Amino acid sequence: MDKIKREFPILRKCTYLNTAVFGPLYDALIDWRQEHDLDALLHGSDMWDQTLKTLSDTREKIGHFFNCNAENVSLVYNFSLGMNLLLEGLQSKKNVLLLENDYPSVNWPFESRKFNCTTLGLTTDLEERIEEAVKKNHIDVFAFSIVQWLDGFLIDLEFIKKLKRSNPNLLVIADGTQFCGAMSLDFKASGIDVLGVSGYKWLLAGYGNGFMLFADNLEHDLQVASTGFNAANGNFKNKETLVLAKKMEPGHLSSLNFGSLKYSLDFLDSVGMDRITGHNQNMSMKVKESLGSMGLLEEHVVERVSHSTIFNIKGDQKMFNNLLENDVVCSLRGAGIRVSFNFYNGTDDLEHLIKVLRT
């Protein structure tokens, strides 16, 4: 991984444990973005055909990367916008299951539209309680983040498959922003009906790009009303025949933003998602063991078998300031300090973190 780490200038000056806030940019991506903008400077509107190709290639790449048909891929500027467009096509009389303190852009859009919401707190036996709640409360929609933003709590994706098989009419909507890019995901096999992701964290693609993936045959459940000329691919004849994924793209899209997303997916492929997943799972176990033995993690995290690479450490402003003063880049979140490890972080970063915490 040392050669790969040299692509990220920020890693040379600090212990960067903050991918959960922003995935650092890297040299090769900046080179591509500069070349793209130089082409725009020199060729103006002559780039239009290339722009359309870039967007099409990005959809194809996303589909291949996550195993989803390209025609079921929507390019959105971020998860929050995509989620709000999506819920305009869902009847507000639905019974919705949410998780307490989940990312606001998951919960708030349901709550602001007055859905019938049931909320579960995070516990070690969360999956069992989800299954019970779905049956007891006649849940129509389960919406959640695969990885919880505050403390990295990881939902068991094998459970999601089982839940969907047992409840085929349940609409499963997932936010993968804190998961996709850190771990592999097979969308078609996941049991998830709608997956939304912003690309500026673990996908390392910078701001202003994301996507939503749709399972087949959701047109009846999600009667999205948004539309626009871009949704029709600039063809008046397509106005009345738009598929769900295209309705999520009403206006023109940036070839710089979404080209950056494709470039970073290619980059992650070159590193190898199996390799990244293995590294991150190994780091997760090491971090959990180290921080857990120091009494710095919540019980519902320590007792879980699997966890993400995001952790919330019990600590205050003084501890946070000490970490920053010792070049550990992290964030205050919830009641503690959040650290997040990615494939460019190694045991040396963990050792430095522990050394500073012990001081």
Characterization of the model:
By secondary structure, the protein is α/β, with parallel strands linked by helices. It has two domains: 2-26 and 273-358, Aspartate Aminotransferase, domain 1, CATH 3.90.1150.10; 42-270, Aspartate Aminotransferase, domain 2 (3-Layer(aba) Sandwich), CATH 3.40.640.10. The chain has helices at 2-5, 27-43, 48-66, 79-87, 104-112, 126-136, 157-166, 244-247, 255-271, 273-293, 299-302, 317-325, 347-358, and strands at residues 15-16, 73-76, 95-99, 116-120, 141-145, 171-175, 194-198, 210-214, 310-313, 328-329, 331-333, 336-340. The strands form three sheets. Strands 2-8-7-6-5-3-4 form a seven-stranded mixed sheet, with helices on both faces. A three-stranded antiparallel sheet has the order 9-12-11, covered by helices on one side. Strands 1-10 form a two-stranded parallel sheet. The longest helix has 21 residues, at 273-293. The two termini are 29 Å apart.
Please state the second-level CATH architecture of the largest domain. Answer: 3-Layer(aba) Sandwich
- CATH class category label of the largest domain: Alpha Beta
The first-to-last residue Cα distance is: 29 Å
Q: Report helical residue fraction.
A: 40-55%
Structural class: alpha/beta
Q: What is the overall silhouette?
A: globular
DSSP helical segment count? 13
Strand content is 5-15%
Main sheet strand line-up? 2-8-7-6-5-3-4
Number of beta strands? 12
What are the secondary-structure elements, in order, as H or E? HEHHEHEHEHEHEEEHHHHEHEEEH
Rounded average pLDDT: 96
Whole-number count of domains: 2
Stretches where pLDDT is under 50 for at least 5 consecutive residues are: none
| CATH fold-level name of the largest domain | Aspartate Aminotransferase, domain 2
Quaternary form? single chain
CATH homologous superfamily annotation of the largest domain: Type I PLP-dependent aspartate aminotransferase-like (Major domain)
